[in-house]
Amino acid sequence: MSSHLSADHPAAQPPGPGSVEALISQARRLRGDVDAVRRDSQDDATDPRGRWQRALYDLALHQLSDLDAHLAQLRDGPAPAPRAGSLLSRVGSAEWNLLTDEAEWSGELFRILGRDPASVPLSLDEFPSLVLTEDRPKLTAMVTDCLVDARPIDGEFRVVRPDKTVRTVHMMGEPVLDADGSTASMWAVLRDVSELRRSQRAVSETRDSLRRPPPPPWQGLLPFPEAGRPGLDLAAAHLPPAYTTGLRTRYDGWYDACPLGSDDETLLAVGDFGRPETEAQGPAALIGALRGLALAGLRPAVLRDRLAELLRTSALPPVEGAVYCGFRPDTRTLAWAHATGPGPLLFRGGTGRGLTVRDGPSGQAEATLEAGDLLLLHTGALGPATVEHLLSLAPRLTATGSAQDAVRIVARELDEIPGRRDACVLMARVTP
Q1: Is 212-430 a domain of CATH 3.60.40.10?
Q2: DSSP one-letter string for 275-291
Q3: 306 near 312, Cβ under 8 Å?
Q4: Labelling 269: which of 140, 245, 252, 380 has CA 20 to 30 A away?
Q5: What is the mean pLDDT of residues 325-349?
Q6: CATH architecture, domain 88-196
């Protein structure tokens, strides 16, 4: 029987003295070629496809630069003092002794975590205090699996530096066994992958912008004020379900934002239809009626009741799971009423909570908002578990610079929920 290796493809040989240098040259040449193509490309920064292509080029260059640094390390050996910003300065190591509860960190790890190299390394029990609260369960599970079941660690989490900046860290580790086969310590390598993940998110977000479905047809008839309203930066998303009726998408949810009365007050509303609508006219007529009542200056609780009465005497679908909010920009006062629907979600300072849906004496509840607050209204299609997940996104949402960035995160998270019904979300950011 002849060998499966042909004469044109000899068996791999151990790398020779110049092979690593040749790989470095190839990597640098490829990086230069990619950079040249990127600079010569005629992509339009205002075009979604152009932004997606630019993000892919940037990600490829980032990874090629890391490859170059890895190969250079193979050639030169460990550097005694990696220069700031280099790949080696973004990789650190640690070992935690389980018998003495002592820890040893490399100088690079201190820099990654933003801590003074002269300070005492944190023990394994203290280390989670550096980790973002919502990522701590993940880290605890990885460490427990490593120490109890001897499983290697391979995962990511976010750490908060003393200056409040957040960095994403990739951790790989394994248990160190003593002569009796018991776990004596845990050794790990941690790499700061913040820039790499940022590049990957840019590719994902620009790709999503190419796939984003068109807005619901009623928004073409009654344009949503994407420029915002006084005191508010606004954005919304309609997430179609996984199923269709005939050739048309079913519409179970709706949203709107419009003037409330003749001054600068704004009505924000989100709700479900009592029955699925397969035509644009039903939702458009409902939102038209909603805007007419809002322009008459009806307060949220009264508007809710009048709209319900109007729908009962018409052929329009009934409204379920709706919430109606009025926002006054001069006092930043939010008043809201609901119709068997979920209350608004408020995100402030890295935390999120649901506002109470209990009605006050006037039939509506009130709260005072602050500049930078994010208010999220959503349809009843999102169950309690999904709402809890949205609240856990508070650090990411409050770190965004616009309502559009925040609603993009929410839409991406909700898009991964299997079996989700047609849903709508509306995000309002209180501007200074």
Answers
A1: yes
A2: EEE-SSHHHHHHHHHHH
A3: no
A4: 245
A5: 88
A6: 2-Layer Sandwich (3.30)
